[in-house]
Amino acid sequence: MTNEKELQTIEQGRAKYAFECAQEGKKLSEASKYKSYVKKTPMLIKNNGLGAAFAFIYQNKKEKPYELIYNQTYRWLSEYRKYVKKDEKNTLMAQLVSMSSEEYCKITNEVMALFNWLRRFVDAEIE
Fold first, then answer.
1. CA separation for the pair 76, 67 (Å, rounded)
2. Cα–chain-centroid distance for residue 85?
3. What is the reported pLDDT for 8?
4. Are 15 and 21 in contact (CB under 8 A)?
5. If you average pLDDT over residues 109-127, what whole number do you get?
6. Please, are residues 81 and 46 in contact by the beta-carbon 8 Å criterion?
7. What b/e readout covers 94-120, taking b as 16+ CB neighbours within 10 angstroms?
8. Residues 14, 116: Cα–Cα separation, whole Å
9. Who's near 102: CB < 8 A, 6+ residues apart?
10. pLDDT over 80 (residue 38)
11. How far apart are CA 113 and CA 110, in angstroms?
């Protein structure tokens, strides 16, 4: 069972990473689109599910803001939280569609928690 101190550390890590992501998004020439897409992503997930939302983001990766959102989420889930593997052949999408319901639910909650922070920071950092 995760204790309160661990949860605080995870939450602080999430906040720090989200702030770094917002700074990265701020540097895009299409920063306002990035902000808009970040703010819409949680509702996309709530309405359609994580898999469908990220299939849409994956499909639109030709747009820099969507590509950045996809890569930032993948990086968080693979490098920081270790929920998925970072693998050229086994993309985030491939892993999402093949995981158990329990893993899928855990990752959905994690992505929503990350975007909760990210939305706050893009509001503060990007006009």
1. 14
2. 15
3. 72
4. no
5. 95
6. no
7. ebbeebeeeebeebbebbeebbebbbe
8. 10
9. none
10. yes
11. 5
Tokens of 79: 């490098």
Instruction: With beta carbons less than 8 A apart as the criterion, state whether 69 and 57 touch.
Output: yes
- What average pLDDT does the structure give for the chain? 91
**Amino acid identity of 125?**
E
Dihedral sign, CA of 86, 88, 94, 100? negative
The ranges assigned to domains in the chain are 4-125
- The terminus-to-terminus CA distance of the chain in angstroms comes to 41
What topology is assigned to 4-125 in CATH? Peroxidase; domain 1 (1.10.520)
Residue 17 has a pLDDT of 95
Tell me the C-alpha distance between 70 and 34, whole Å: 11
Task: Report the largest interatomic distance among the alpha carbons of the chain, rounded to a whole angstrom.
Answer: 44
Q: Read off the pTM.
A: 0.90
Show the tokens assigned to 66: 């969507």
Residue type for position 3: N
